[in-house]
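Predict the 3D structure for this chain.
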Amino acid sequence: MKGSTSQKLCWLGNSGRILVSGTSGRKDGRYCSIFDIRQINSGPIIHKKLDNENFDTQLHFDETLSMLFMVNLGQQTACHYFYYTDPDLVEDLGDGSSCL
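Done. Predicted structure below.
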């Protein structure tokens, strides 16, 4: 992930994993990557395109719900994902109008 939009980092509870979100250098959308901090040099466990937007976001992970919330700055939407730790999966929730 590269680009002029800042990269965001979020701890995923007590899973020992972090999520990094940002845009590509080609401005073709937002991506997220999940890393295991115990094996950070192995690269991301997941690398996934989220959408075609290039908005900056704020991230919040609710460990009790296993939900990742992304608030789009400059746009009035809040997006959310469900995070499964085993197997590693980030599931899209919603219809795209108010969530990713």
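The beta strands are 8-11, 17-23, 30-36, 46-51, 57-62, 67-72, 78-84, 89-92.
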